[in-house]
Recover the amino acids of this structure.
């Protein structure tokens, strides 16, 4: 693949995942590596402890989902949430709130709920996150339809390199409900969050060189049955990248995987932990019909060299 | 504090609002202090309020090859792109740099939701969207940038930023990072928002909609007037400015090289600041903490002091709380010589497109040497310092700053300048 832009590097310092059948990165990582099965009984929606109990109950699904993974990824990174600029990406935002808005406007527009209205903005989850964590940093909510994960990753990686700062990336979509479901395809709930940093640390989970590259081939094929079972969610574009991290970070101790988002053996050299032949495989996530972001996993040797240079 | 950035050249820009199509229409309204607000006649059951409605949207369908994108917001986007020969400037940039080296980064709050609202009023017998209004790429917030990307036949990164009323200000920041790194060589930034039931009845539910034309910073202000608009700008690095990331064969740029290039005649984005209030979803921080932080970051990136700012286009929505907090911020941070005003009385609050409309107003202020007034306002609130003015004056503007604050406590401040302004000696 010929890169059409210069390349840069980010280090994954924290990671989190949530889907009803894989409610946490530990479960998801194992399932993406073919070492475990998704839950037979799906979990209900997450209940992020970062929200006060009353807010937790009232929050739209997108807010509960996004704050759950954002908090877990930041915890995993060991960084202070208040110091992290953030990118929130979602193809459709809160489809249930949109269904409520459009239904109410069609029947009794003057009875529209003011709280539902302010929850209908695409940056609702970003707003609740910055309020919950006391974060005054820049926060950007964006969308790129079926390329929303790639666009979010590009924005986060760009900010990470351009401003030499760790950045929180949160990606989520929920199920289409009501009449909207006749045109909008999205099943279940799926969310992930990553803390990207410009430099490696003792907590680095994986590192990737990235560049813009010609695209048009569509999303990469999913390796695992577990990932394929989530492919109908509008944020499924994140799954090939998450599978790549799961494989790159393989070898984590099962005991560590039990404690919240912190699930990986940090001391395992990234390249050696991955099966031979897979570590260097690039993946290419679509950004538009003819452009992609190409990601190549870095070996730990490169990461250490940079840390000492 | 962030490091100073190299200015970005604004090679072309355009704006279409209730004041009319193209830069000249907004310039005339700024110069004459003319409000373009009218009594609300939007939708099947109009609320008693005033709106900034763009004329001719209903009678201007999209060209046949783009007909699948039909909706009010994309129509206004198309009208906007055709203002001031902006499309020609984009085509020239595509020729200069290549289609994959031009990004599309656009802001909107509600995008095509008007088309979705319409579908809900006309569901078929099975409760599904009616035939003729079922394009999945329209009923989703990315509709705007997706449409513009296709209409302009570009192949670079394409993203819709949606952070409520700061959306089309923040696009400048997102694009600046891509340009500085060298991921692209040009970016189409801007935004489009159109009147729809969601915002009219939504702001009504929050008791923020005024029954009269809005009067920003007036002691007796009674809320906002909603509006719609489209605006676009073409951003490029200066000719001899090296991007931050090295290509294999190319020269190494980096922080040491930033700002080394000389500015030729024209208009420039010289700074921006982004921040979060971390206070409330729909009420500003009472001390303007987030707004002040965005201001500080913008001044730092522009490498200027507050005293260097000739003109501020305020967020100035005419809501009780916004204007109180923003007036206090301006009063404590700027000298009396800074001329600050709100143009919401001319265009209405155009929400996700307010950032680009008011960026255009700043660029017009610089180009034409005009410091716009605060239209409709009669008596300034006691909270206002000497900076906030009711009347427009003719005076040079070298550096102009624009405030945009949105729901979720999402703030963005932009700084624009002519070729010679800015930079501490």
């Amino acid at each position: 693949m010929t890169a059409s832009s210069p390349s840069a590097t980010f280090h994954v310092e924290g990671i989190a995942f949530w889907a009803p059948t894989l409610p946490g990165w530990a479960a998801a990582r194992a399932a993406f590596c073919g070492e475990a099965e998704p839950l037979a009984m799906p979990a209900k929606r997450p209940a992020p402890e970062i929200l006060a109990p009353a807010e937790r109950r009232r929050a739209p699904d997108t807010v509960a989902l996004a704050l759950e993974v954002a908090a877990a990824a930041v915890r995993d990174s060991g960084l202070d949430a208040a110091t992290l600029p953030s990118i929130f990406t979602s193809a459709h935002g809160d489809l249930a709130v949109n269904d409520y808005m459009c239904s109410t406007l069609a029947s009794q527009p003057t009875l529209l709920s003011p709280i539902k209205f302010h929850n209908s903005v695409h940056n609702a989850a970003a707003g609740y996150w910055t309020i919950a964590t006391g974060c005054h940093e820049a926060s950007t909510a964006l969308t790129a339809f079926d390329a929303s994960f790639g666009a979010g990753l590009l924005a986060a990686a760009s900010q990470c390199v351009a401003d030499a700062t760790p950045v929180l990336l949160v990606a989520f979509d929920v199920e289409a409900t009501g009449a909207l479901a006749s045109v909008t395809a999205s099943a279940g709930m799926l969310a992930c969050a990553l803390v990207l940093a410009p430099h490696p640390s003792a907590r680095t989970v994986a590192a990737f060189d990235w560049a813009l590259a010609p695209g048009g081939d569509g999303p990469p094929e999913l390796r695992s049955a577990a990932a394929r079972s989530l492919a109908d969610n509008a944020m499924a574009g994140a799954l090939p990248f998450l599978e790549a991290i799961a494989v790159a970070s393989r070898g984590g101790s099962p005991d560590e995987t039990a404690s919240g988002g912190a699930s990986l053996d940090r001391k395992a050299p990234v390249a050696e932990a991955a099966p031979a032949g897979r570590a260097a495989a690039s993946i290419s996530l679509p950004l538009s019909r003819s452009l992609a972001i190409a990601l190549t996993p870095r070996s730990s040797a490169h990461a250490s060299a940079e840390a000492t240079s | 504090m962030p490091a100073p950035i190299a200015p970005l050249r604004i090679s072309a820009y355009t704006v279409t609002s209730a004041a009319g199509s193209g830069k000249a229409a907004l310039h005339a309204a700024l110069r004459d202090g003319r409000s373009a607000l009218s009594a609300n006649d939007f939708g099947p059951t109009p609320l008693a309020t005033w709106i900034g409605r763009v004329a001719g949207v209903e009678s201007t369908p999209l060209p046949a090859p783009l007909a699948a994108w039909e909706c009010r917001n994309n129509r206004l986007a198309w009208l906007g792109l055709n203002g001031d020969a902006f499309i020609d400037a984009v085509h020239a940039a595509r020729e200069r740099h290549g289609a994959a080296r031009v990004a599309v980064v656009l802001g909107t709050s509600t995008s095509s939701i008007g088309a979705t609202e319409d579908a809900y009023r006309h569901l078929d017998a099975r409760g599904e969207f009616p035939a003729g209004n079922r394009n999945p790429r329209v009923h989703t917030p990315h509709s705007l940038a997706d449409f513009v990307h296709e209409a302009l036949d570009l192949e670079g990164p394409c993203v819709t930023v949606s952070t409520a009323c700061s959306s089309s200000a923040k696009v400048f920041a997102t694009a600046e990072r891509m340009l500085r790194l060298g991921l692209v060589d040009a970016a189409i930034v801007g935004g489009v928002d159109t009147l729809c039931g969601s915002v009219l009845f939504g702001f009504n539910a929050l008791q923020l909609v005024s029954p009269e034309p809005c009067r920003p910073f007036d002691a007796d202000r009674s809320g906002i007037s909603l509006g719609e608009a489209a605006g676009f700008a073409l951003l490029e690095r200066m000719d001899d400015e090296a991007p931050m990331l090295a290509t294999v064969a190319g020269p190494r740029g980096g922080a040491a090289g930033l700002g080394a290039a000389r500015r030729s005649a024209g208009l420039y984005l010289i700074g921006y600041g982004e921040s979060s209030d971390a206070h409330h979803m729909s009420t500003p921080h009472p001390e303007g903490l987030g707004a002040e932080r965005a201001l500080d970051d913008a001044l730092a990136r522009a490498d200027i002091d507050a005293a260097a700012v000739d003109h501020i286009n305020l967020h100035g929505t005419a809501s009780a709380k916004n204007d109180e907090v923003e007036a206090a911020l301006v009063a404590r941070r700027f000298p009396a010589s800074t001329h600050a005003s709100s143009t919401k009385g001319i265009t209405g609050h155009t929400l996700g497109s307010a950032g680009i409309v008011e960026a255009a107003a700043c660029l017009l202020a610089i180009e034409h040497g005009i410091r716009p007034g605060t239209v409709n306002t009669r008596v300034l609130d006691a909270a206002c310092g000497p900076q906030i003015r009711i009347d427009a004056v003719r005076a040079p503007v070298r550096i102009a700053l624009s405030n945009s604050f949105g729901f979720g406590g999402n703030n963005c401040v932009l700084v624009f300048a002519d070729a010679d302004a800015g930079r501490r000696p």
About this structure: Residues 248-258 of chain B have pLDDT under 50 and may be disordered.
